[in-house]
Amino acid sequence: MKPGIRxxxxxxxxxxxxxxxxxxxxxxxxxVVDAYTGWEIKKRVLSEPDxxxxxxxxxxxxxxxxxxxxxxxxxxFYAKSKATEAYHINIASIDGRSVHAINDxxxxxxxxxxxxxxxxxxxxxxxxxxxxxxxxxxxxxYPQGAELYTxxxxxxxxxxxxxxxxxxxxxxxxxxxxWVLFTRETNGMLDLWRIRPDGRDEQQITxxxxxxxxxxFYMPDSETIIFRAWSKAEQDKRxxxxxxxxxxxxxxxxxxxxxxxxxxWAPFPAPDGKHFVFAKMLPPYNFEIYLMNIETGKQTRxxxxxxxDGFPSISPDGKLMSFSSSRSAEKGSRKLxxxxxxxxxxxxxxVVESQVALLAQ
Length: 361
Fold this sequence. Notes:
The protein has one domain: Neuraminidase (6 Propeller), CATH 2.120.10. It has helices at residues 3-26, 353-360, and strands spanning 29-33, 40-44, 54-56, 63-68, 74-80, 87-93, 99-101, 108-113, 119-124, 147-152, 159-160, 167-173, 180-186, 189-195, 203-204, 211-218, 224-231, 243-248, 255-256, 263-269, 275-282, 286-293, 299-301, 309-314, 320-325, 337-342. Helix content is 9%, strand content 41%. The protein is globular and about 50 Å long. By secondary structure, the protein is mainly beta. The strands form seven sheets. Strands 3-26-25-24 form a four-stranded antiparallel β-sheet, with no helix packed on it.
């Protein structure tokens, strides 16, 4: 190799090394307890440029759809069991130090905490194992026999809420704890329903002839519901549009929030009652997470990765966002796991009484 070329390569190597060192110096670490040794190690955040700090939930592998406990200290989600290859509901502390499953039968999907922080609600096929397994992600093949259950956070005292061998899933709880909100499929139509935590007073919310509603959550007022929907007439078309809506839980005031012809889905309300996070599919098939102001319509992009980013949720204190992503998976793999983003700088936390009084002046 010629001395001149050797010098250029050496110079480039030094510049690259210094750049990497500078990047590492600026990249924060979080303490993590290794699942196998029990030793505390440090794990680097996994943020892309233009992203707020992001890190992977430690000691959790294949997992999807995580939602925070009322005290913002735990997450509930469904994760793949190494023993059965099925997905079961798990609860983990946000530092990953504590992880435990609350069910080990059938296949589970969506789940949510009750505001008392003592009980949870979840979807499972645990009592209908004789029915076709179905596919939680495939329209037209959703698991029939998916029912709703409540349980203590340790998995004890399981109580069944529904019993109809239909698809009852996509479940959440109102902030005041008075209602369990879910999606039911009847004769190929998806609609929103609500039911009391003890199984009483079941009510259908939506009755639209064409919209396929689901993925619903109560806003902080425990009356307004935010959800995604698509046209049943269009659902067999690849990349069909999907939009975000709100509705009162008595079925009134249906309002379309997004209308850009794109795939907008998985909305989750912020504690301030003015914003929500959601996933948007950017051409050709890149899923990213956005924050939107309901009042102004302003959208702010939060993730900037070529990997899949979706199913966002915000902690009740407004400081963290959890989401499912393939950004740590090997190239070509579709494996999803759970990540956390520090969104404390966005100012979407709960509005306290003093702030309300100040705004009223």
